[in-house]
Amino acid sequence: MRQPRLVELDLLRFLAAFAVMAFHYMAASRSLWDESPVVLFEPVKYFATLGILGVELFFLISGFVILMSAWGHSLRRFAVSRFARLYPAYWFTVIALYVLYTYTSVEYFKPNLDTVGYAINLTMLQEAFGVIPAGGVFWSLWVELKFYFLISIVVIMGVNLRRALGFMWVWLAAAIFAEWLQNPIVTEIVMPRQAPYFIAGMAFYLIHREGSTVTRWGFVLVGYACSLYAALERMQSRIDLVGIKNFPAPPPAVIAWITVIYVLMAAVALGWLRWVRWRALTTVGALTYPLYLVHQNVSAVLIPEFRESINPWVLAGGTMLASILLSYAVYRLVDRPGQRLLRRLMGRSPVEQRQASVP
């Protein structure tokens, strides 16, 4: 039976994307404003800076959702679902960036790419080929793709409770070993800094689907501990680079952020957010992916153009609104019809197509 959509996850997706957008607009992009954004937006500097960890919330949600979408499905159906979900909006964004940086004078966030580089970016495998991403946020898509490849091992065998738990045990042990080993190849494959979020997200889904056990909550707790380590290390590397003054992310605030996102996911798993049933959240969740893809480059166009004439708070808010409206247009005109087209073209096996053609 088709399960009711967890619209609370759509809300969390949007909050994650909004947090990343706030980070880029109000904490990270000094070059856009020609001065430190944390000075311009001093009252919200801690919240804006911590928005960088919105990506970690995406990884938690992805662990939950991908295990849910893989359950009971063949590898082919899983692959078609993921391909159709990721590529239409992504292809649009890569092509739009090519046009923007080839045929206009916009320079901010301009990648050092030729036409071949943009073409390779269309595969979403650019990092595997040693090509820089066309968009600054694309790095997380490579992480997501590697997660899909890893979980495909279980999908091939058929996802069930025992195999899901076995996969989580092996990946967690490998992640801890990889963090100790510090081998670049092993790290690239195992992703020790991102794996805890995916594994904890999978554990949350198992709790949601099968109920609570010591083992499942054990995965959550170990994932939480490893996530704290990874987040603190990530933020400290930024602080070491630019200083705490320009990157105000003290350890207690980082710990609080990671704790909050884990508590929110626990609330989803335990059904505490079932009262969230606003139907529009389905659309809000759907436009989150285009928003994540395009928001940084929207700021590259608008903020330098109007920073001298518009109040920074108004300009930041207006740029956020413009990004959201553009994302909605991409969702309605590109993403949704593109997904339908790809599923129609790829969704049926040759046998199914022949059967469907019989009167």
Question: Would you kindly provide a written description of the structure presented here, covering whatever features stand out?
Answer:
The protein is mainly α and about 350 residues long. Helices cover about 75% and strands about 0% of the residues. The chain is built from 17 helices and no strands. The longest helix is centred in the C-terminal third of the chain and has 35 residues. The chain is globular and about 60 Å long. The two termini are about 30 Å apart.
* Secondary structural class: mainly alpha
Q: What's the number of extended β-strand segments?
A: 0
Number of helices: 17
Give the overall pLDDT as a whole number: 92
Assess the beta-strand content as a share of residues. under 5%
Low-confidence stretches: 349-359
Task: Produce a short descriptive summary.
It is built from 17 helices and no strands. The chain has 359 residues and is mainly alpha-helical.
Secondary structure elements and pairings:
Layout: H1 7-28, H2 30-33, H3 37-40, H4 45-50, H5 54-70, H6 75-103, H7 115-121, H8 139-157, H9 161-181, H10 184-190, H11 195-210, H12 214-242, H13 251-269, H14 280-286, H15 288-306, H16 312-346, H17 350-357
Helix pairs in contact: 1-5, 1-14, 1-15, 5-8, 5-11, 5-13, 6-15, 6-16, 9-11, 11-12, 11-13, 12-13, 15-16
